[in-house]
Amino acid sequence: MNHIAIGEKGEKSAADFLKKRGYNIVATQYRTKTGEIDIIAKDKDCLVFIEVKTRSSTLYGFPAEAVNYKKQRKIINTALCFLKQQGIHDSACRFDILEVYLQRDTIQYNHIINAFGD
Amino acid sequence: MFAQTFGSTTLGLNGIRITVEVDITNGIPAFDIVGLPDASVRESRERVRAAIKNSGFEFPARRITVNLAPADIKKDSSGLDLPIAVGILAASGQVKSLNCRSQVFAGELSLEGRLRAISGILSMAANCKENNITEMIVAPENVQEALLAGNVTVYSMESLREVVAHLNGEKLLLPAVSQLPEVQPSQSELGFEDVQGQIVAKRALEIAAAGFHNVMMVGPPGSGKTMLARRIPSILPAMTAQEALEVTKIYSVAGMLKHNIGLVSNRPFRSPHHTVSSAGMIGGGSTPRPGEVTLSHNGVLFLDELPEFPRTVLEVLRQPLEDGEVTISRVNATLSYPAKIMLIAALNPCPCGFSSDPTRECTCTIGDIRRYQKKMSGPLLDRLDIKIHVPRLEYNDLVKNTAQESSTVIRQRVEAARSIQYKRLQGFGLYANAQMEHNHIKKLCKLTPDSTVLLKQAFIKMNLSARGYDRIIKVAQTIADLDAKEQIEANHIAEAIQFRSDFQTISRK
Asked: Which of the four CATH numbers 3.90.199.10, 3.30.230.10, 3.40.190.10, 3.30.465.10 does domain B2-167 have?
């Protein structure tokens, strides 16, 4: 499995995980010039932008560590684009990181709520 | 949602009430502090965030804007952590926002949510009184200091959780009560009983202590100048309540007050090293902070090896010595700090140190000595009321075991003289002879006919300046006070004149 396939598998299972948790998926792989947001979902009234990071081993650090300042700015700017496009002006927002650990036959999740902000 | 609380910061020695406004709205989560915070206040974001979370409250994942008003004053107190945290909790509905508008919060937060002591509490508490705020919430270590201001109800809180429980009425705390230990100057270790001989120097220092006069001691190395100077605090009169309050305020703002001590009861004794900068001496920084002259307010500033100080540093002393306060202008603020000091200077007569010694040969050339003495300008020397020579001790004096007068005895005489001065000067807001201006001298100092004649002769013979003339009268007045005489008599004037011999005379003795 190459790294793109790992990522896609992780994002798919992440969406399922969120649905089970009661989130409504609004969009996946939302793309603009400024970047990409893996999953946009609604948790009750709060709009949640989720970055999914999948790893099959922690040899190269934890998944969340890869979401550095530059990546955060990208996600925030993309989120602003989304809000503008949808004409949403006054909604609570949140940025989460969902770590997905792919093991041989199990998948583990670590959901970091409100991981970063402006 | 919006909430408002009050915090406080200091500018110079004054507290300033800061209105902390917190607004929480929807949008991309963010936490901004506006209103000219300095680095320590901007960093409070991280402390506040952690403290709220770790105290078991919810840190709202929304757009938080904190405004510190008035917006044109630089805020540099970490004590704003607490009002910001309470404001956020109030704006997010976790604290009843009506209950946190009538008090000033002042405390730094630990990541765990505990309250830490901050500096400048006394000034902040005094400012509460002016703004008609009657309640203050501070860290336990700051309580006694806050209570010194009087008329303010102070609550001692351990943690953010305790503050919230109190504000919500879940667990009300009682106001703190003052438990100051009786103000008593601790007896200084060093006393004049250790000093053999040096009768003239001891007498001069007694007069200086009684009238708060500046002193210059000249003598060869090892003759005991430093030893004498270090013993001056032991004969200074105890501070009045007002003086102690002034000193406490300065030390509080400078962050040098020991917590839970309350009032500073000992007169300051500062002895800066001669590598001190001008800013270190009179105060400085982009928002000026107090320097050595202010830290020795109502006490002693001892400059050992006076000519080793950079000339610029000595010259900046001229204005504070004359005015008793120092005004520092910088980009951010122009501030005045009090600086009523007793300057004690010690120096050698020449670079090798022996030009005044009867037995040892001086190895300096005339040029060396001139260069050495030129370090101190005439105007500075003119401001030193008492100049004495401290000779090297003879062997017999040194090993003699005669009991010397103890500091306690000398201090009793000093205090008696000082109380005469208080009575005389009360109406003018002064408390020692050295602080009299020309008009006070004219009004208050009465000379006998003999002493008037003597003073006139001295004025002509010694080429005195107007300031020199005034200063002789001031010293003579102190001597008369020590003598418990109503009028300044000829022998008082004579002694004062003798203390005013110029530097050249002393160093050639």
From this structure: 3.30.230.10
